[in-house]
Write a structure and sequence with these properties.
about 400 residues, alpha/beta, FAD/NAD(P)-binding domain, 6-stranded mixed beta sheet, 13 helices, 19 strands, globular, oxidoreductase
Length: about 400
């Protein structure tokens, strides 16, 4: 299998991970990234839950994330009046995951791929595909092309690969919410190790975490009409967003207004889309993984972890099942139920955040402590304790 070539479209999270695993499976992978160069400071931050950390451990990069990230053990909820509503998790219990800057995770995975001798080409925006049963040719907008025995689309929720191989697939669904956030320093906030603070504000939700060096990672969610694109939102000047967000949380209890006021970093603004179910995950020698086929909203903190799980499982199926079509079919069979359940679960969390009508707020704050107690008792082991071992053989 040593001369079989794998074309990997996208160099975010899933791309380098699947490239490394496919190399271990005997393929020669090459990664093609649409952006002109890597940006280790792009984006905000994300959570790698403990199921995702297991995959990073298999890749040999988990220690870097543990050192750089913010340890997550509990979520603590407050109302806009300052009333403590409850917590989920256990401060003395198992670490649930690590919150890390997205650009840093990209950097760690990209460097791991390069250390494995995997070539990465930037400025390669996919234009078209030509496929037979045994070969795929990728054509890029710069006029170049590449041939491979299989192709993996890891190019995100608005995947060009998905549109090419599954032209009748549904488009991602807009959840009705946008997410925004940034990084602040110099705010007098007591640091509670392992705690993510969640505030149900008068007009919008607000969350923040405090790193050991005092840097604050914060985010908010807001109902927003239409079907905005990220480009449209980011075309609005930063000064306008700062004013909108400052007004949104004006009158909230500290430290929320101070965190926003002392944010000197760029404020990122993103529409939240998800993709619950697509009828097929592959076509011919091309297959999709991660957000390209089952994008989830950030509420459950599972997007990165699911992409990493996909990468390991797909490579195992390709390694152990001789027929490529059968390997893809089995991969989809093993993953579909789990990922669709998590995408639906994550969307349901987002819908519960946004009560703004006074009556809705009253009943939410009244009932939420009971719901949180129930959630603490209910096990989410089905999500966090999922395990897939690289050394176990896949059987059909």
């Amino acid at each position: 299998m040593g001369n079989k070539r794998a074309l990997i479209i996208g160099c975010g999270i899933a791309g380098p991970a699947i490239a490394i695993f496919l190399r271990r499976a005997g393929y020669e992978p090459r990664i093609y990234e649409a952006q002109p160069d890597h940006d280790d400071y792009a984006g905000l931050f994300l959570n790698v839950a403990r199921n995702g950390m297991r995959i990073l451990s298999e890749l040999g990069v988990d220690d870097r994330i543990r050192r750089e990230g913010i340890e997550m053990r509990v979520m603590s909820f407050h109302s806009s009046s300052g009333k403590w509503l409850g917590t989920i998790g256990d401060r003395s219990g198992e670490v649930q995951g690590f919150t890390v800057k997205r650009g840093f995770l990209h950097k760690v995975l990209r460097e791991a791929a390069l250390q494995e001798g995997i070539p990465i080409e930037f400025g390669k925006r996919l234009a078209n595909l030509q496929m037979t049963d045994r070969q795929v040719t990728a054509f890029f907008e710069d006029g170049t092309s590449a041939e491979g025995d299989l192709l993996v689309g890891c190019d995100g929720i608005h995947s060009r690969t998905r549109r090419l191989i599954l032209p009748n697939a549904p488009e991602p669904d807009y959840t009705g919410l946008i997410s925004f956030g940034g990084f602040a320093r110099g705010v007098d906030v007591p640091r509670e190790p392992g705690t993510q603070h969640m505030v149900f504000g008068k007009k919008a939700f607000f969350g923040y975490l405090v790193k050991s060096d005092g840097e604050i990672y914060w985010f908010g969610n807001l109902n927003y009409p239409g079907r905005p694109t990220r480009k449209e939102l980011m075309s609005i000047p930063q000064a306008e967003w700062r004013q909108v967000i400052s007004n949104l949380y004006q009158g909230e209890l500290q430290p929320v207004p101070d965190i926003i006021r002392k944010t000197e970093s760029h404020i990122g603004v993103y529409p939240i889309y998800d993709l619950i179910s697509v009828s097929a995950w592959y076509s011919g020698p091309a297959v999709l993984i991660g957000d390209a086929i089952h994008a989830t909203s950030p509420n459950a903190g599972q997007g990165a972890s699911l992409a990493l799980e996909d990468a390991l499982m797909l490579a195992k199926c390709v390694r152990d099942i001789g027929n490529l079509g059968e390997a893809f079919r089995h991969f989809e069979l093993l993953r579909r139920e789990r990922v669709e359940k998590i995408v639906k679960y994550s969307r349901s969390i987002g819908q519960r955040k946004h009560a703004t009508n006074p009556v809705q707020v009253f009943f939410r704050d009244l009932m939420l402590p009971f719901f949180l107690k129930m959630a603490s008792r209910q096990s989410l082991a089905w999500m966090y304790d999922y395990r897939v071992n690289w050394h176990d053989k896949v059987t059909v």
